[in-house]
Amino acid sequence: RGLGDVYKRQALDLERLFGTRIVILDEALAQTRYFAYFTNNETLDQILSAINSDRKMKISRRDGVVYLSLK
């Protein structure tokens, strides 16, 4: 398994936690490492905002699904 599999599993963890499907559209994004600690019952939007602090990711929603891609 490559690193992309690790990050896809993290997306699956977020899906289960928030009951929202998350789709990573770019393999390069799936290979990107993000480090963050969350301890205050953050919302999905807060978590996505934190991992997108460099604004290189496009986050879109359609029909209850969150799509992540590189800008």
Structure summary, number of beta strands? 3
Work out the radius of gyration. Answer: 12 Å
Instruction: Give the topology string: H per helix, E per strand.
Output: HEHHEE
| Poorly predicted ranges | none
Q: What is the helix fraction of residues, given as a range?
A: 25-40%
Please describe the biggest sheet, giving its number of strands, its sense, and whether it closes into a barrel: 3 strands, mixed
Strand content: 15-25%
Count of helices? 3
Overall shape: it is: globular
Structural class: alpha+beta
Spatial strand order of the main sheet: 1-3-2
What does the average pLDDT come to?
85
The separation of the N and C termini measures 26 Å
Task: Write structural notes for this entry.
There is one protein chain. Helices cover 39% and strands 23% of the residues. It has three helices and three strands. The chain has helices at 3-18, 27-30, 44-51, and strands at residues 21-24, 57-62, 65-70. The longest helix is centred in the first third of the chain and has 16 residues, at 3-18.
